[in-house]
Amino acid sequence: MKKSNYLLIIIGVITFFGCKKEYRTAEKSLKTNKKPVRVISLEQSRSIDPITASGVLVSNEEAILSFKIGGVVQSLNVSAGETVNKNQRLANLNLSEINAQVESAKYTYEKSIRDFDRATNLYRDTVGTLEQVQNMETLSEIAKSNLTTARFNRQFAIINSPYRGNILKKYVEVGEIVSPGQPIYKIGTSGFDGSQVVRIGLADKDVIRIKLSDMALVSFDAVPNEQLRGIVTEIASSANASTGLYNVELTLEGFHEDLKNGFIGKVELYPGADSKKYKIPIDALVEGNGTIGKVFISENGLTAIEKEVEVSNFGKDYMVVDTESLPPNASVVIEGAAYLRSNDSIQIVK
């Protein structure tokens, strides 16, 4: 037999067994009915959907300083923008009148003591009455209280800085007559950790996502190419009547001397609650009704199971779902889900 005939026989045998193998593969696939799908693994992420806002930089603690009593402003020792130390004298009234009041109260008290001693001696000599002694004692106590009040008022006719800080505003000038409690200076803390905060306003749909100690990144145009870390330290329990927004306070980590009160900060706020959510492609959604959607998942890589998920937010090409909706080690079908039914066998393809 010629060599060419042997070659034809070999090719024929190979073709026969090759066709038989393809037939068996197709037959096996038909029997198992595995449906090809593509999947992704679930991963939690803190940065699913950061909240963006703008806010104003202010001091952590601010105080309006004033005199307890009225009078004529005699001296103002600092101006707006200056840094002051704790207990540094900032201003004082003309003390002529208050000193006269203190002296008058002092003399009245000294006289009341002499009157009380005289009444006591007369009563001891049976010339005076017990009632006279008691009345003098009462008048002496009243005079003593008046002297204490006058000295206290004189103490608060002088303004000292309650802490190290910056003078934010000066309200009056030397020579003006001021009333009790009228604002003289506005001061804000400075020079120690946690003294600078950014106050922002959030809508109800955003404020419900955050909690105290959530992390934020803040940037200022005055300090380009730098993001400062901060945390949520205060959340308003009711909306601002004028804006309808909820005031939120972010405290910056450390103290930054280059930043001035009034700077506008751009905020990216990362809710801690988002760390308990999954971000999955929108292609995984096979059915939806309001905030409830349906997806297919697989825990063993062999079987697809239909699951309902609660969708908390939609992005351009993704959706955010609660972690409680899905098992932690599951894979989500992102291609081929439209042809699946629950408990279908699947074949994961790359």
Automatic annotation (TrEMBL):
Q: Known PROSITE patterns for this protein?
A: PROKAR_LIPOPROTEIN
InterPro entries, from UniProt? BSH_CzcB-like, RND_pump_MFP
Q: Which domain of life is it from?
A: Bacteria
Q: Which residue range or ranges hold the CzcB-like barrel-sandwich hybrid domain? A: 66-187
Database matches in PANTHER family? HLYD FAMILY OF SECRETION PROTEINS, MULTIDRUG RESISTANCE PROTEIN MDTA
Q: Which family does it belong to?
A: Belongs to the membrane fusion protein (MFP) (TC 8.A.1) family.
Name recorded for this polypeptide: Efflux RND transporter periplasmic adaptor subunit
Phylogenetic classification of the source organism: Bacteria, Pseudomonadati, Bacteroidota, Flavobacteriia, Flavobacteriales
